[in-house]
Amino acid sequence: MAYFTAIVLLILPFSVFALDNGLALTPPMGWLSWERFTCNTDCKNDPDNCISEKLYKDMADRLVTDGYKDIGYEYINIDDCWMEKERDKDGKLVPDRERFPNGIKALADYIHSKGLKLGIYQDIGSKTCAGFPGSYGHFETDAATFAEWEVDMLKVDGCYADPKQMDDLYPIFSSAVNKSSRDILFSCEWPFYQHAAGMKPNYQQIAKYCNIWRNFYDVVDSWQSILSIVDYYITNQEEFVAAAGPGHWNDPDMILAGNFGLSYDEAKAQFMLWAVMASPLLVSNDLRHIRKEFSDLLKNKEIITVNQDPLGKMGKMVQKNGNIEIWTRPISPLSKDGKYSYSIVVFNRNTLGSVTNVSIKLDSIGLDSPNCYSIYDVFDSEHVTKYCPQDTLKIQVNPSSASMVVAKVLN
Question: Where are the transmembrane segments (predicted)?
Answer without folding.
Answer: none
